[in-house]
Design a protein that fits this description.
By secondary structure, the protein is α+β, with helices and mostly antiparallel strands. It has nine helices and 18 strands. The chain is globular and about 70 Å long.
Length: about 400
C-alpha cells in the first residue's frame, strides 16, 4: 500500500492560514464622520467625496490637508457610512447625508468594497444584500460627480496586455488553476505566483489576511495543490533594483525597495528597506505611456531594473498605499518619531501625500469652474501658503 502524499497548499493559500498574519479591526470603534457645514442659503455644498476604509491613513492625511485649504470634504467608508441616512437625487445629483446636502464636485473611490461593509442588519442574507447595495451605490456615485479620479480601473490582466501592446517589457505570464503549468513559463528556474484580485482577503468585515506574491522554484510547483483558483504565474525576473513609482497626475515620485523575498512587505515588513530615489528616464517614460493608455490619474507602479538596462513592468496598483513608504523613509532619517500621529500626517516631507492633495484640489477647482464659473465665493487659500503643524518648518503645498 503506497503512502498518501502530503498535502502541500499553494503559496497564496498558505499565507491565509498563518495565525500571525492577520489584522483584526473588528473591535475598532466606528465613529460617524464630521460633515461640512450647511450652506446658509440652503444650496448644496460642492464637495470632494472620498470613499475608502475608515482607518485609511492616506485619506486622513489628504482630508486634513484639504480641510486646512478650505476644501469641503466628505468621507464615505464601509464601516461608518452604513449607519447614515442617505439619499441621492438622480435628476439633480444632490447627495444628502444625515440632513446635509452636498454636490459631488470630485469623487474618488479608493477602497470601498462589498466584503468590507459592516451592515447593522441582524440576518445574514440581509447583511449580504445591504453590503452589495452599499458597494454598488458607491461604485456608481461617480456618475453624478463633475470630476472623477481614476474613472477607469483596469485589472492586472488588462494592464499586462496594454503594456505588451505598447512595446513595454513584461515578464512571461500565464494564468492557470494548476501550478504544474509553471513549467511552460520559460526563461527562469523560478516563478512568481500572484493573485489576479487584490492582495487582501477579508471575512468577516474587519478581519484581514494577505495573499501577496511569492516566488517558488519551478521544480517544486508540481507538489502544490492549488486551492486559490486561477492565479497568475510569471517568470522570475533577475534584477538589480526594484522601484515603486507613484504616478499622481503628471507627478512621479520614486522609491527603491530592498526586500529579502517577494512577500516580505506583508510577511516580514521590518526587513524591508525603502529609500527615496530618482526615477530613471526609461522607467519614467514607461509610466507616462501606461498612465495615458490606461486612462488613470493615480497609480502605484512596480518596476524592475535589470542588469542589461531593461525596465520591466510588473503591475500598477490603483489603490496602492503610499503612507507606509513615506513613513519608512522618514523613520530611516530619524524624523518625526517624537511627533503625535496627526502631526506626522501633516509633515511637509510627504511627497506622495502632497501630490495627491494637489491633484484633488486642482480637479476640485476645475469642477467648480465647470459648474459655477461666476461663483468666486468658494475660492480657497493656496495650500503652499499653509504652514506645517509639526514645527518642522515646511510648507504643506
Amino acid at each position: 500500500m503506497t503512502e498518501k502524499a502530503e498535502y502541500l497548499a499553494d503559496p497564496l493559500s498558505r499565507q491565509l492560514t498563518l495565525a500571525t498574519q492577520v489584522i483584526d479591526l473588528r473591535e475598532r470603534p466606528v465613529l460617524k464622520r464630521t460633515l461640512p457645514s450647511i450652506d446658509p442659503h440652503g444650496a448644496p455644498v460642492p464637495c470632494v467625496v472620498l470613499a475608502d476604509r475608515e482607518w485609511s491613513g492616506e485619506m486622513d492625511a489628504v482630508a486634513w490637508r484639504l480641510s486646512r485649504a478650505g476644501v469641503p470634504t466628505v468621507r464615505l467608508d464601509p464601516e461608518s457610512t452604513p449607519l447614515s441616512h442617505l439619499t441621492l437625487g438622480i435628476d439633480d445629483g444632490v447627495l444628502e447625508i444625515d440632513g446635509v446636502a452636498v454636490r459631488v464636485a470630485l469623487f474618488w473611490r479608493r477602497d470601498f468594497q462589498q466584503r468590507s461593509v459592516r451592515s447593522p442588519a441582524a440576518a445574514d442574507p440581509v447583511r449580504t444584500l445591504a453590503a452589495a447595495n452599499w458597494s454598488s451605490f458607491v461604485a456608481q456615485l461617480g456618475s453624478v460627480a463633475t470630476e472623477v479620479v481614476n474613472a477607469t480601473t483596469p485589472g492586472l490582466l488588462e494592464q499586462l496586455r496594454v503594456a505588451g501592446e505598447c512595446g513595454i517589457t513584461i515578464p512571461r505570464t500565464i494564468v492557470s488553476t494548476s501550478l504544474k503549468d509553471a513549467v511552460t513559463v520559460t526563461g527562469s528556474n523560478r516563478v512568481v505566483v500572484k493573485a489576479i484580485s487584490d492582495h487582501w482577503v477579508e471575512g468577516p468585515p474587519g478581519l484581514l489576511r494577505g495573499a501577496f506574491p511569492e516566488s517558488v522554484d519551478i521544480d517544486s510547483t508540481a507538489e502544490y495543490v492549488n486551492d486559490a483558483g486561477p492565479v497568475i504565474i510569471q517568470e522570475y525576473v533577475e534584477h538589480i533594483r526594484e522601484l515603486r513609482i507613484y504616478a499622481v497626475g503628471a507627478d512621479q515620485i520614486g522609491f527603491e525597495v530592498e526586500k529579502p523575498s517577494a512577500a516580505a512587505v506583508w510577511m516580514s515588513p521590518d526587513e524591508v528597506r525603502i529609500r527615496a530615489t530618482a526615477i530613471p528616464e526609461q522607467a519614467a517614460a514607461m509610466v507616462r505611456v501606461l498612465q495615458q493608455r490606461l486612462g488613470i490619474d493615480y497609480g502605484a507602479y512596480d518596476v524592475l531594473l535589470t542588469k542589461d538596462g531593461r525596465a520591466v513592468f510588473l503591475e500598477v496598483n490603483l489603490t496602492g498605499a503610499w503612507l507606509w513608504f513615506e513613513e519608512k523613509v522618514l523613520s530611516s532619517q530619524g524624523m518625526g518619531r517624537h511627533l503625535p500621529y496627526w502631526a506626522r500626517m501633516l509633515s511637509g516631507r510627504r511627497p506622495v501625500t502632497r501630490s495627491v492633495t494637489n491633484l484633488i484640489r486642482t480637479r476640485y477647482r476645475q469642477a467648480l469652474a465647470r459648474t459655477c464659473p461666476t461663483d468666486q465665493s468658494r475660492s480657497e487659500p493656496r495650500l503652499g501658503a499653509e504652514r506645517d503643524a509639526t514645527g518642522l518648518g515646511k510648507a504643506i503645498g
